[in-house]
Target: Mannosyltransferase
Amino acid sequence: MSTSPLTEPTPTVRAASPARSADAADVTLAARDSARPGLRGPRLPARLRTARTRHTLIPWAIGLLAALVSAAGSGNASYWGDEAASVMSAERSIPNLFALLGNIDAVHGSYYLFLHFWTGLVGTGEFAVRLPSAVAVGVAAAGTVMLGRQLLGGRAAIVAGLLFAVIPQVTMMGQEARSYAFGMAAAVWLTNWLVALVRRRDLSPRTWALFGVAVAACLYLFLYLALLALVHVAVFVAFKPGARMWRAWARSLVLAAVLAAPVVVFGLAQRGQIGFLARRNYATLESALVGQWFGSAFFAVAAWALIVVGLVAAVRSGWRAALVLGVWVIAPTALLFLGNALVTPMYNLRYVAFCTPAVALLMGFGVTALAALVRRRRREGGATGWMLPALAILTVASLAAPVYLAQRGPYGKDGGSDLRQVADAIERNASPGDAVVFAEDIKPSQKPRLSIDLYPDRFAGLTDVALVTPFTARDQLWDVVRPLPEAAPALLEHNTVWAVEREGRSLEDIAELQRLGFYPQQMIQVNRSVIYRMVRTPPELP
Model:
């Protein structure tokens, strides 16, 4: 029977896997020899030093590649409603931001605070604001490789890191001004740390106290990372480290709970803000199998096939990796579905983005298992050992390409958000002294009004006649506006009004403007928005 790669405290490659490469063997020897007093520093053979350096750099090289994949074209798409919440929160003063978090979005407070300082440095352009998410994807990819080395062996880890970079949910979160990419990185590195602690049976109180602080920090970043506890239980069950380790972990969780109590309390108090989930009906089989990670049916079929192969191969070679990764892929979604059905709406496709490292690891192990099977039948090895995994990676990337390109189109967010394009059209066509009004009979995250909040420079010189209180002067997310009939006196001070409406919606605003003596002179179709130029035309003389 083959030995699991998780049996010993030091990472090794499974006996059932293809033979370990010379590089990996060199790294093992280098690590062993460097621990001997006579082989430190310059006396270490150059070949071993090179191998060890390469071993260290590979995860971060893959992380850099993943960050570049996510960053490429990330400024193309307009902001959408959720990103508007991020940017508009970041633009507030610190006192106003904390006042806002006392009412809503406390669970995103850490990210908003970070973004406040980041946008102060780089501005609020889409690429600049989304760039930290791409960097977080890179950090998550490096962590995926590192965790893969601990659980599956070096080759599967590298394949998994490369596959992680092209998973559609990853490339989406990598160009999203939200905290989900940070959640991916936090989840995989926290799990890396736990696996390392358990494997070496580390009982240091200081280390476990730091681990508890890290868990609390993760909860401040994204409260749903509490679901990682299910995965970490699986780590303990898989490794059987003993009662003392269980107690050390339990104490760290108590510390984490105490430190994270404020965000937990505020999150529970503000749980009504996700009540919209009940109307969206996200908790469907299609969401679980396709939408939450894979974006398209074609990609999902290939991904699930590799996941199943990887899971079977992991079970056959040693059940530890299969247990940890299987729980990570299945349990958070299952628990959210159960809570969604029995307690309160709580499932959203993005809430389980932190499971993508496990998805990539099982896919990567599936690729290497299939490649090993083919090589055994052909009796091939050596340099050809990477040809089949490389072909598989390219195939998976080609399946992801249509989704990737759609994400990076000008209307790649929220089914066609066109907030920037609306602002650009207004800037090109309006004149100083004109008025502007926006349709308000739409859910807040899709209101055309967000275009003036996100791109105010495009509206310079125009009068927002319906505005009562701007968001920066409130402890809530959005502006306070008056109904259009109440804005009539202000409207009548202008000869031209630009009305931004949603295509296919009621044109009550246009009818109201006509009652006030404005007539449509121009219509500009953007994407899902329509802009009307309304003018007051004096009666024609006979």
